[in-house]
Amino acid sequence: MSRISGNLQAVLRSIALAAHQARREPADVALLAVSKTWSAEDIVEAARAGQRAFGENYEQEAVQKKEEVCRLAPDIPLEWHFIGPIQSNKTRAIAAHFDWVHTVDREKIARRLSEQRPAHLPPLNVCLQVNISHQGTKNGVAPEGVLALANAVSALPRLRLRGLMAIPAPEDDEEKQRAPFQQLKQCYTLLREKGFRLDTLSMGMSADMVPAIREGATIVRIGTAIFGARNHDDT
Fold it and tell me: DSSP assignment, residue 217?
């Protein structure tokens, strides 16, 4: 078993254990392998081990790697998620090359993604990024602005609003880690009560996956625990 394959299996076991402890079904928590800065060969190795969903932060790097992965493993259908900040001049490529976008935080970006989504592709799955910890250095709509943004995004024809995403401020204490996930779940529940047909809470990374699952995460974004440590903005 390769290093990446072994790491992947260990992460899946951790997800299953955390789900059982939270009295949830492991199948209800999807693993998004964060492959930013890693090679197409690394992605193919994880795909050969059974991983199908991959998250990328940088549009140009992702598009190049996607083409290379398709060449190396044309027999494996993969799902591509954009999880980085979105600049206006990058929306066309993101709309054309990704299945999901987790980082929609303003109506202008959502409108551009909808207008630029190619007609032959299904609607783009999107999550609203919420700045749940009110961090000045992080993107995301403020919690009090989530409802207005959800209303705007849900009206766009080429987008499908799936849920919410957050990157809370790092904490070492598990109870402090759980608090922002609880707050995001409250935003999610409020939107569902308002009639939005949401099914996704994208929250939890390598360092806080367990409390995120306990608070209802349906997608956890894991990079370091699968591929190893390469850069400082850990996931």
Answer: -
SS3 content of the chain, % helix, strand, coil (to 5): 45, 15, 35
CB 32 within 8 A of CB 54: yes
What separation, in Å, do the N-terminal and C-terminal C-alpha atoms of the chain show? 24
Which residues, at least 6 apart from 177, have a Cβ–Cβ distance to it below 8 Å?
Answer: 168, 171, 208, 211, 212
Per the confidence metrics, is the pTM higher than 0.85? yes
Kindly report the CATH number assigned to the domain that includes residue 142.
3.20.20.10
For tokens 């990024």, what's the residue? 129
Residue 64 token pair: 């190049």
In a domain, 103, yes or no: yes
- Alpha-carbon distance of 187 to 168, in angstroms, equals 14
Residue at 234 is within a domain: no
Q: What is the pLDDT of residues 153-202, one digit of tens each?
A: 999 999 999 999 999 989 988 889 999 999 999 999 999 999 999 999 99
Domain interval for residue 109: 3-227
- The number of domains in the chain is 1
Tokens of 27: 């199948």
CA angle 20, 24, 30 (to 5 degrees): 100
Residue 81 β-bridge partners: 55, 100
